[in-house]
Amino acid sequence: xxxxLYSTMTRKKEVFIPLTEGQVRMYVCGPTVYDYIHIGxxxxxxxxxxxxxxxxxxxxxxxxxxxxxxVDDKLIxxxxxxxxxxxxxxxxxxxxxxxxxxxxxxxxxxIHPRVTDxxxxxxxxxxxxxxxxxxxxxxxxxxxRTAKFxxxxxxxxxxxxxxQFGIRxxxxxxxxxxxxxxxxxxxxxxxxxWTSPWGDGRPGWHIxxxxxxxxxxGDTLDIHGGGHDLQFPxxxxxxxxxxxxxxxxxxxYWMHNGYIHIxxxxxxxxxxxxxxxxxxxxxxxxxxxxxxxxxxxxxxxxNFSEETMEQATHAVDRIxxxxxxxxxxxxxxxxxxxxxxxxxxxxxxxAILQVFRDKMDDDMNTADAITAVFEWVTETNQLLQLEQVGxxxxxxxxxxxxxxxxxxxxxxxxxxxxxxxxxxxxIVERNEARQQKNWGRADEIRVILSEQGILLEDTPQGLRWRxx
Length: 468
Fold this sequence. Notes:
By secondary structure, this protein is α/β, with parallel strands linked by helices. It is built from 14 helices and 15 strands. It has a four-stranded parallel β-sheet with strand order 4-3-9-10, with helices on both faces. Helix 1 (about 40-55) crosses helix 12, helix 8 crosses helix 9 (about 305-330) and helix 10 (about 345-360) runs antiparallel to helix 11. The radius of gyration is 24 Å and the shape is globular.
């Protein structure tokens, strides 16, 4: 089966054809780092982690970008409330983001760009829009001329002519058209700001992602992803400003995951009903949280409850019990060189892996792919009941499960090879690198620790570590 993805732009499944053979350029909108990430934020993190893993499983080289929005109105307000500077606040929650994603067994992106690090590129992008008469300055702010992009609304299928200005959209007399959106905001007294041709200020939200996506991945992406709530206005505005400037599609495939609901309401920070990932990890294992997120098709709503998490925990326990039994049986299994004692089982396992591939090829259907994993559990449990089991059969079984698990991440299989004193030494080196603002080396060490199953935790007594 050929990989097909449902694209929000066309509202249908399309065969995936990358821009460059064997390579995938993927951008997913990351968090605004003014608070802890909650389980609603974790859904796209986990799902697009699996998308990336499956693309690599399928032989693609993936360049995966997830940005940090580290300056905006929310950060400025929160910094004022807490007595911190905006960079201090952003660094605090970026550090927590890394802790939480490591706890969820989410691999870090190829690059995690920060808005504040790419400010010159963002300003240059706005200058190009102004130079092509696609944007204009008014009262110290810069706005995009939406009328210059007749297709505005094509991604979200939003009828922008019917927006109720003053009710659903803020009225601003400085705009030529009420649909116009801000690219650059002039700084208020005392606010953090950067120099630009239009005065001191900071960028609007939408232009940040367009500029960073173009800088790191080029004019056109293979895949652009995010939560359902980003379709409008964020992604719609990205499309308008990017495609007006380059004359090319911003992305060939748009993927959006559905909401997580709790008590029949969308989980979000604004509603105050979010459950922080750090709180979730205190109560549930990462594998159970991943199972919960992946057990429903990504485009469908996902309902959180204690019952669903208990079911996820039991499901993961069943998988890991079977895996442990396979490893234990391998110690006493009959050694059979190139022969196999149970050819029927080998055929079933091969068929299960093919089903797994087919389900993932069908728009990343993780829910049905998990069903294939449980087919493996059922067949393997039956195999283990036999009096004689070939070592080669168990090796094939373990190899098949490992391939599926490397994509989904439903069972803990990591082996901790670092000694305690080696972990301590790396943490000391990471702290020194951070003090010297050597972020590259600090991130490199964090990845090394994460791959070894080491979790870093901030405590009142300072930084502590533990093994997964």
